[in-house]
Design goal:
The protein is an alpha+beta fold. It contains one helix and five strands. The chain has a three-stranded antiparallel sheet with strand order 1-2-3, covered by helices on one side. Strands 4-5 form a two-stranded antiparallel sheet.
Length: 75
């Protein structure tokens, strides 16, 4: 992925890989501000803009969460 990847890309990827260590994980950010995480080709979705205190990814039947990324705006 290029240097212009979203700020939370590495955060989401590392947490998803830790949760699903034996799986192939892909993080997809869409232009309409939706984040997908594909686990072995199975898609989970999070819609950006919700007021959650975590990223909650769901496929409509099951779900998993990833803590929000903490950003140090002073750095």
């Amino acid at each position: 992925m290029s240097d212009d990847k979203p700020l939370d890309y590495d955060h989401l990827l590392s947490h998803a890989q830790a949760l699903f260590s034996a799986s192939t994980v892909a993080v997809i950010h869409t232009p309409d501000e939706i984040i997908h995480i594909d686990i072995d080709g199975h898609r989970y979705t999070f819609e950006i803009g919700s007021d959650d205190d975590e990223y909650l990814f769901t496929d409509g039947k099951s779900a998993f969460s990833i803590p929000l990324m903490e950003i140090d705006w002073d750095s």
